[in-house]
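Second opinion, please. Please look over this fold, written as tokens:

===
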Amino acid sequence: MNCPFCDQSDTKVIDSRPDPDGIRRRRECLNCGQRFTTIERAELGGVAVVKKDGQREEFDREKIIGGVRKACEKRPIPSGAIETMADEIETAVRAQNKAEVPSTYIGELVMERLKELDHIAYIRFASVYRAFADVDELERELAALKAGWKRSGVPADQLALLPEDQPKPTKPRLLRVRRTPERAPARPKTSDDESDQRQRKAR
């Protein structure tokens, strides 16, 4: 392991701990004294992937990650989900205990996990991997996907545009204020009124 600062190979490990991607090691350069972190993981070597045309190439985990990332582009994929998928596929290939595995086996593993992760990414990958001949074949794949797709609720990290369970907004109620009739102002007494009152008293 060469130091990224002085490019010398004399380093020592001062701390190690497990990590989802492998083993995280904290190292110190014995030449310049700088510290840096490395992640070590076991690579699957000695396994050849037999392609559809008969060619063979060494199993490459990074190719799986690259292909899946293209299918998941601009999709709400959880962080680290693609790397976890690549780890699961690598483990499945290792469990075969074979020197050669067909590329179709790896492709089916990818599609199986993409179907659980994101349906749009699954269709994107399937359209390239299976090379649909026409729109009818694509529609059959979509129909098969919908048949086994039980829609769950809206994910916790995703906001729905029109939630189905959202109650309809109620119209605001208008409050009616009762007004008391205004009394007419008293009419000022005139001399005619006073004479009328005197006549009533005289009677």
User: Anything to note?
Assistant: Residues 81-95 form the longest helix (15 residues). The beta strands are 11-19, 22-29, 35-40, 48-50, 56-58, 100-102.
